[in-house]
Amino acid sequence: MYLLTIRDGLQTRHIGPYASPKQAADQLDALLASCGERARWQIHALESPLLAAEGLRAGSSRPALAA
Length: 67
Description:
By secondary structure, the chain is an alpha+beta fold.
């Protein structure tokens, strides 16, 4: 699952969830039309709580993702 985050000045909007990053990107143009010129956006992959807990128990660390 994926979540679209749009920051426009002091306002942050979280839209989703979407099944794929392509679906989130398809909605992006329509959503940015209502935002300011300098709005920033990101598409985040959501983790399953069970998988995140298993990773913590196993001692693995998640690598940092660069945007």
